[in-house]
Amino acid sequence: AMASPAASPDSSSHEALSSVNSAPACSPASDSENLSPDELELLAKLEEQNRLLEADSKSMRSMNGSRRNSGSSLVSSSSASSNLSHLEEDTWILWGRIVNEWDEWRKKKEKLLKELIRKGIPHHFRAIVWQLLCSATDMPVKNQYSELLKMSSPCEKLIRRDIARTYPEHEFFKGQDSLGQEVLFNAYSLVDREVGYCQGSAFIVGLLLMQMPEEEAFCVFVRLMQEYRLRELFKPSMAELGLCIYQFEYLLQEQLPELNIHFRSQSFLTSMYASSWFLTLFLTTFPLPVATRVFDIFMYEGLEIVFRVGMALLQVNQAELIQLDMEGMSQFFQKVIPHQFDSCPDKLILKAYQVKYNPKKMKR
Q1: pLDDT tens digits, 157-205
Q2: 86-106, pLDDT tens digit by residue?
Q3: Which residues contact residue 271 at a Cβ distance below 8 angstroms, ignoring those fewer than 6 apart?
Q4: Max intra-chain CA distance, the chain
């Protein structure tokens, strides 16, 4: 399914983020000195597309919900869809241009690029855009890949056991394709003896393999490990994960003190629910269409998005969670939270950017 764009964060979130160099553009105009009238118009169209998608999913829901008004729903649904196809076409043209003029966009139109990525990279552009975002397009390690495959890895048995548990319900990983994951991990464990192989990373590799060929996925994975704090997260000591949990607790204490006190009174530790958020970047929390939207942003902005989405989830659910005991909260995190944003990933992204996050403070 084509990812739908998110509305621009509101002004209050903009103020909260103004200290951050990654502050989202509040409106297309904020970056207008670098934008042509065409690009401004496209941004407006993307906002419109967002509204149409909302209308479309609502009319589809009402159509499924009751047969009585199915006639009228079908009309609104099909008219929304025909408008959507024009907008999809525009989005494709825009992303085609971004990919072709990548260096210029990266240098001169960074704010707009950031905003477009937050709205979701169109499905068919993900492979190339992810590679461009992490500079994995011409890595020497790509040429070593076939050599690495001929060697055997000390982690082989462990890898084989785990692969079966990754995305078990996904068609893509039944039969032959699961070999892709296995081979890729064997290769990585040879390049990086210290980390070798870590269970959570299987989900990340699985997602990459759904988008791109093996050698390319390998290059992106190597980059993510080296440049995005993932290698530290996956080291055997797990010290970096401890640090992320510590930082997340700081946000929780500062911004949701009541919930924090409730969690403590129930001995509900942050690591119980948040470890998998950091280790698998929400790939084990949300269904793929939602998780992939978070991953788009991670590829440009790094781990900050994990903190933001995590805090947004707690803010949205604070009232319910405070009523529950430890067992109830565990169930809530497993059953309710994963599906709250299935029909509107944009709302999740919007809420994530309303979370106050100060990188300097986090670093300190």
Answers
A1: 666 666 666 665 565 555 544 555 666 767 777 777 777 766 678 889 8
A2: 767 788 889 999 999 999 999
A3: 245
A4: 64
CATH code reported for the domain at 237-363: 1.10.472.80
Q: What is the DSSP annotation of 141-175?
A: HHHHHHHHHHS--TTHHHHHHHHTTSSTT-GGGSG
Assign residue 350 a region (left: φ > 0; alpha: ψ between -120 and 50; beta: otherwise).
alpha
- What amino acid is encoded at 353 in this protein? Y
> What is the secondary structure of 289-355 as a DSSP string?
HHHHHHHHHHHHHTTHHHHHHHHHHHHHHHHHHHT--HHHHHHIIIIIGGGTTTT-HHHHHHHHTTS
146, with CB counted inside 10 A (0-12, 13-18, 19+), is exposed
Q: Which CATH architecture has domain 132-228?
A: Orthogonal Bundle (1.10)
> What is the pTM assigned to this prediction?
0.75
What does the domain layout of the chain look like in residue ranges? 85-119, 132-228, 237-363
